[in-house]
Amino acid sequence: MFGRLAIVVAADIAVYAAGSARSTGGAGAVAMLVGPNAPLVMERGMRSIHMQHAYDFYKPNMSSEYPVVDGKLSVRCYFQALDQCYSRYTEKGKRLYCKTLFTLDDIDYALFHTPFCRIVQKSLARLMFHDFLCDSEGDSSGGEKYADLAKFRDVKLEDTFQDEAKGKEVEKASMKCSQNAYDKKTAPSLCISRDVGNMYTPSLYGCLASLLFSEAIEDLAGKRVMLFSYGSGLASAMFSFRISGDINSSSPLHALVTSLKDIPERLASRRQVEPAEFVKTLTARENTHNKSNYSPACSVEDLLPGTYYLTNVDEKYRRTYKRKPNQAVEEGCMVV
Question: Is 282 a residue whose pLDDT tops 80?
Answer without folding.
Answer: yes
